[in-house]
Amino acid sequence: MNNETACIVMIWSQQAADVVKPLISICIVAAVIHFLFWINLIAYPTVRQRSMQWLYAYLATDLILLLRFFLLYAYRWSPICVPHLLRTIICYCEAILDSYLNLLQSYIVLALNICRYLQVTRTYDVYLSSNHTIIISHFLIYILPLLYYVIAIICYQLVLERPPGDACDLIFTSISMQIIFLLFSYFIPVILTLVFLLLSLNYIRNTDGIRTQKIIDARLKYHRQLVIQSVVFYSLWLLLWSPYLLLFPFYYRHSIIGSVTQILSYVSLALDPIVIASLDVRFLRAWQSTWNHLMRYIRSTSVTPVPAAILPKY
């Protein structure tokens, strides 16, 4: 039988299925939380702000990661015979998307902090005055990493690994490429993110030339809010995403170490909407309003009127 035209049913092996099973419950919970988050985003105009576009881009990558997981999970559990060409395309998408989207999140977080720094240090709205620059930044962040994967595959610096009964993955052909990938996917965006965060905090803390105590107090209040938001968000990001980004170039995705880092990353998917919503009072009000509407609906449906008895006429 010609391997180029062979039709093969792609089914998880027992070992691979055991690795994937813990992720199913996490992804279902994450999908429900994201659904509730985006419902609030659609329903309440107060949370649809231009200044929050990087957070929405970050959460959109979460959604794509969840969609990828469910589609590929169903694809490998369904007894569908897949032709060689389609199987190869799906395999490349499976291998590239996970790493690509995680790399995107590193630079989306960096872009968020750069814009936050400019918002703090400038007297104008950077999202209005630099709208074209931000659009170009979106385009570059999404396109350049994808071009990197395409070029690396064409130049045989990345090789597709297709173990039978398991997920497809990308394998680096040299240690130097592993280090370069790690440098650009993790260390550069993380270091720059921390630099811009510290610059923002230093600017807020600096009260030289300000004579009004009211302005100083307002700036210190904003400073405390910024510290709390940044510490919580980036601590969780570094804690839950860093292991996956750091170990991806060196370990197969469904190895023991790779599986643990994947579980941590999917836990982060579930926590992201909760963390972002809890750090912004506009989201807290939207969630509270949604909860109140839900409770009123439940109470109205649970208390059903008892029909009066129909008495016979004499």
Fraction in helix:
over 70%
What's the number of domains? 1
Strand content: under 5%
Query: Which descriptor suits the 3D outline?
Result: globular
Strand order of the largest sheet: 1-2
Structural class: mainly alpha
Number of strands: 4
Task: Average the pLDDT over all residues and give the rounded result.
Answer: 79
Might you state the CATH topology name?
Rhopdopsin 7-helix transmembrane proteins
Q: Compute the CA-based radius of gyration.
A: 25 Å
Number of helices: 9
> What's the main sheet like?
2 strands, antiparallel
Between the first and last Cα atoms, what is the distance in angstroms? 89 Å
Low-confidence stretches: none
Task: Give the topology string: H per helix, E per strand.
Answer: EHHEHHHEEHHHH
Q: What's the CATH architecture name? A: Up-down Bundle
Describe the structure.
This protein is mainly alpha-helical and 314 residues long. The protein has one domain (17-281): Rhopdopsin 7-helix transmembrane proteins, CATH 1.20.1070. 74% of the residues lie in helices and 4% in strands. The strands form two sheets. A two-stranded antiparallel sheet has the order 1-2. Helix 3 (84-121) runs antiparallel to helix 5 (131-154) and helix 3 runs parallel beside helix 6 (175-205). The longest helix is centred in the N-terminal third of the chain and has 38 residues, at 84-121. The termini are far apart.
